[in-house]
Each structure stands twice: as C-alpha cells, then as structure tokens.
Amino acid sequence: MGATAPVKPLSNGKRRKLWQVDERLICPIIGTCFSIEALRAHANRTHSSVETASDFEVHATATASAKQSGRLGKLLNKALDRQHTRSLSRAKQIRDSQGLLEWWREAVQSGRVAGPLWAIASHPHADETCLSQVYGDIHMLSHLHGANARARLTQQADAQQAQEQLRAEVEALKTRLHQTVRDRDANLLRLREENRALQARLDLLNTRAERDQQAESAESALMLQGAVQAMERLEGERAVLKMDLTAERERADLLMQRADEMEQERDALESAIQTLLAPTCENSGACDGKQCAHPDLKGRCLLYVGGVTHLRGRYRDLVKRYNGRLIHHDGGVGDGAARLESLMSRADLVICPVDCVSHDACLRSKKYCKHNGKPFISLRSSGLASLTRELHTMVMTRH
C-alpha cells in the first residue's frame, strides 16, 4: 500500500464521513464491519453488475465506493452509523486521542473491534498516532483470524474422518445384528419342525400303544422306551436352543442399544463440527446460551479419571474449546489415591469412562462427589466421541 497523507484532528468537532477517514482504514472497516451478504445487498442497490460477482469483487467494489461520497458510499456510511450507535455514543464522550487509544486497546483485548474501529476512524479527535496504531492492530488481527480459519478447516477434516469411521462402525453393527436375527429365526424354525415331527411320532406311538395295550410285546415296549428317550433328548436340545435363543435376543438388544449410542455420539460430533465452524458470538458474556453456536463451560474445571493415555492431550484440547479446563488422573495405581483426592478437591465436576479406569478409582470418585455435592458423570466409553457428546449435552442443559 502506498503512503497516505497524515490525518489531522478536525477542528470543527464533527465526525468524519466514511470517504473522509484515513484511506488505510477503508478496507479494514469494510471487511470487519460488514458481512459479505450485507455488502452484496447494499451493492445490489447501486451496482447491477455485482449480481454474479465473486465475494472478493463485491468487497473491492464496496471499498472503492467507500472512498467517494457517491450513493453506495453514503449507504455504507449510514449503515455503519446505524449498526454501531452504542460505540458512537461512547466515543462521543472521549475528547482526546489518548482516550481513544485506551478504549481501542480494551476493544482489542475483548475481541469486539467492529464498533470501536468505525467510531475511532470517524472521530474528529483521532490523530495520526492513534489511527496508525489502530491500523497496525487491525492488520495483525486479520492475520490471526486467517490462521484460526485454517486451523478450523483442519479440525473439520479430522471430525469428518471420525464421523465417516463412526458411520462405518454403525453399519457393521447393523449387518451383524441382521445376521444374528436371521440365524435365530433359522434355529427357531428348525426347532419347531423337529418338535412337530416328534409330536407326530409320539402320537403314533401312543395310538399303537392304546391299540395293542392288551398284547403289548417286548418290542413295542422297547420302541416306546426309545421314543420316550428320543423325546427327552429332543426336549433337552429344545431347552438348550431356547436358552441360546434367549442369549441371542439379549445380545441383539445390546447390539441395537450400542448402535443407538453410536448414532447419538455421531450426532454429537456433527454438532461439535458446527460449533467449531460457527462464528464467534458477538454478545460474549451477555449471551444466554439458548441460541448460541458456542456453548460455554464458563471456565469450569473438569477432572477426567482414567481414559486412554495417548488421548490425554485430545481430551484437554476438547474441553478447552468449550472454554473449560481439564485436569487428569490415570485412574490406576500410578498417580495414587492421595493425588486423586487432591485433584477432586480442585475440580468442579468429575468424569469417569467405565471402560478404561480401575474399579477402586471409580468408586472413590463417585463416593467423594456424593459426599461433597459435586457432579459425577460416568461415560460408557473413553473415546473422544463419548466425551464430546457429554460436553455438548452438559453445556446445553446447563443453559
């Protein structure tokens, strides 16, 4: 960018219009204070050529028009004043460049810079030193936001891969379940056929026995005895098959339950993806959380007891994304009971994955939380998907 003429405070006390502000700040103002959809809507009112223009072309058109007092420049100026009335009211109370700089530093720390950027750029008392500092800060923030966007794309790809793997596991479970049901039905059909054949044979023998009762021979007695023994054997087999069928039904129910749980974990992962890709809430601490795309643990400390060793860092990063802090105990004999007691006293709530923790550590944690009135959450699985689902449910129900 070429050099621009130094900007001097205005002696008349009137705010600068958009086309009067420091030319270096025009592009940052357009890019920070307007979404691309809003820019396209404003530009469509004055430039018919932006209908098929790319996002960059729309931005470039708006930036160029903002440097002139034309129709689009005036529309954008009015929109900025309308969107940032609160920031303009605060800026009106500041009478010197130093005060503007102090306010700007507060805005940068909070991450809410759109309103202060416009209010300071158009302020009559903003001098060259102030505006140069604002330009430098907003320039570096744009680099930081670009790096964060690339990180979010990487996280999206990882989450998509995990989702596909989870979907494949669910499909495999469904296939095994269907095969189990088919095997069960085939066994049941065979058992019924054998039972009918046995009953027919027994009826025949009973008929013969009644007919020849007066002259029952040793041979008929042996036949009857063999039939009875065969019936007893088949009844025994029937009982065994019945028990096997009951076991298969229970296994099928467990498989179906696991499939439902995995689908719920998949849904939690998809929701987490949307959370990671959603824009930061502009209301920050004033947000009630009901419609917020970024559920907030509000800095609470979570103790994770047990779990997979190589996933510790992933557990911690996941909780951090929800604005929480995670501390860890290995759930075995390595860290010890004394350290477990110390960590539980620091935590706001305790989480135990039952598939990867010692029985003693789990019981100690549950007993401690009950005695001290702290939340205790038992996870079925130590995987990231299970923790993601619980965190999402936790922050949403808490709101």
List the helices and strands and how they pair.
Blueprint (H helix, E strand, L loop, with lengths): L25 H8 L2 H9 L10 H12 L4 H13 L1 H8 L4 H14 L3 H8 L6 H84 L6 H60 L23 E5 L6 H10 L3 E5 L7 H10 L2 E5 L5 H14 L3 E4 L4 H15 L1
Parallel strand pairs: 1-2, 1-3, 3-4
Q: Can you describe what's shown?
A:
InterPro entries: UCP020408. Belongs to the UPF0751 family. With 399 residues, the protein is mainly alpha-helical. It folds into three domains: 18-126, no CATH class; 160-277; 288-398, AF0625-like (Rossmann fold, 3-Layer(aba) Sandwich), CATH 3.40.50.10700. Helices cover 66% and strands 5% of the residues.
State the gist of this model.
This protein is mainly alpha-helical. Helices cover 66% and strands 5% of the residues.
Notable traits:
13 helices, Rossmann fold, elongated, coiled coil, four-stranded parallel beta sheet, mainly alpha, 3 domains, single chain, 399 residues
Distinct helical segment count: 13
Query: Which segments are poorly predicted (pLDDT under 50) over 5 or more consecutive residues?
Result: none
Shape: elongated
Which structural category do the helix and sheet elements fall into? mainly alpha
Strand content: under 5%
The count of domains is: 3
Rg to the nearest angstrom?
36 Å
Total strands = 4
Helicity level: 55-70%
Order of helices and strands: HHHHHHHHHEHEHEHEH
Described by strand count, sense and barrel closure, the largest sheet is: 4 strands, parallel
- CA-CA gap between termini: 47 Å
